[in-house]
Amino acid sequence: MHVARARWPSSNGKTYESIYLRESFRQDGKVKKRDIANLTHCDPAEIAAIELALKHKGDLSALASLDGVHLHEGASVGAVWVAAEVARRLGLPQALGTTSPANWPSGKSSPASWIKAPVSPPSA
Questions:
Q1: Residue 46, domain member (yes or no)
Q2: For residue 115, what are the domain limits?
Q3: Domain-located, residue 73
Q4: What is the residue-level pLDDT of the chain in tens, covering all 124 positions?
Q5: How many CB atoms lie within 10 A of CB 18?
Q6: SS3 per-residue string spanning the chain
Q7: pTM score, two decimals?
Q8: Are residues 96 and 48 in the same domain?
């Protein structure tokens, strides 16, 4: 079994695609194909899941394994967003002033950077 895709251009310039779950077999010495299901209108995630299951059909337990997965921590923006949202709801941007950087006292950064500074990760 495999997932087969057929693409063809139309006269209006669009390219159409049909996606099928197919089975190949031999009959009278010739290779034949049988459509098992039309996947054209399925969600792309469902089609990807079917392709992944077919790729590992000999050992589906490998799909549940995390051996080949590499995790790394990305930038955390949740704490910054929460602090900025709390500040906004309390009216701190208006109290601190949101004028242009040219009007800020010298040596001071933007009000947004005052919120971000305590939660910024240390530089490597």
A1: yes
A2: 78-119
A3: no
A4: 999 999 999 999 999 999 999 999 999 999 999 999 999 999 999 999 889 888 888 877 767 766 666 777 777 777 777 887 888 888 877 776 655 555 555 555 555 555 555 555 555 5
A5: 14
A6: CEEEEEEEECCCCCEEEEEEEEEEEEECCEEEEEEEEECCCCCHHHHHHHHHHHHCCCCHHHHHCCCCCCCCCCCCCHHHHHHHHHHHHHCHHHHHCCCCHHHCCCCCCCHHHHHHHHHCCCCC
A7: 0.46
A8: no
